[in-house]
Amino acid sequence: MTTRTARGWKRAARNRSAGGAGMYVPQRRKLLADLTGTVLEIGPGAGANTAHFGRDVRWLGLEPNPYLHERLREKARGQVIGGAAESIPLADHSVDAVVGTIVLCSVYDQSRVLAEIVRVLRPGGRYVFLEHVAAPDGTWSRWAQKTVAPVSRWLDGGCDPARETGRAIDAAGFDRVETEEFLLHGPFGVKIPHLTGWASTAG
Fold first, then answer.
1. What is the CATH number of the domain that holds 18?
2. Residue 92, SS3?
3. Which of 26, 36, 197, 202 pairs as cysteine with 179 (C-beta 3.0–4.6 A)?
4. Cα maximum dimension of the chain
């Protein structure tokens, strides 16, 4: 790990640890409460989702930031794995569900991550997600997203708020996709669109 990379991971770890658990609580509960079996969470960060999983879940957390592993092990009932979502170190068809909340904004390659999710899901398995997505072109919110993107990528582990994540999920090859949109209101009248839902493989 280079010095520059280490500094970036440490900065992102501080930002993720400082908050997040109190955000999206209703959406987290709705998405996660009914999951069972072996569940892989990609990018669990500081563990904001851990309180919302049922006791029947065998949790695996794939977290690329090594500076968050100790905190995750303290909070989660399960196994923390190092690695990137572009190359998930699990066998084909090995998990019942994959969880990602505010993750696809930060990965290097969305299409590759989604292909890996499809690969590791068992037939009929589900990918459940909560993501902030790009506002419509020509809106004040879209302009604001593009303006803050360079700072956001630097401060928050590569987060790009203007990604077309919904389109990427639709194009990933899932058998069925169900989504719901909602808005959060940011400063200066910015409306931040979010996408939540699930996508299943054929089974």
1. 3.40.50.150
2. coil
3. 197
4. 46
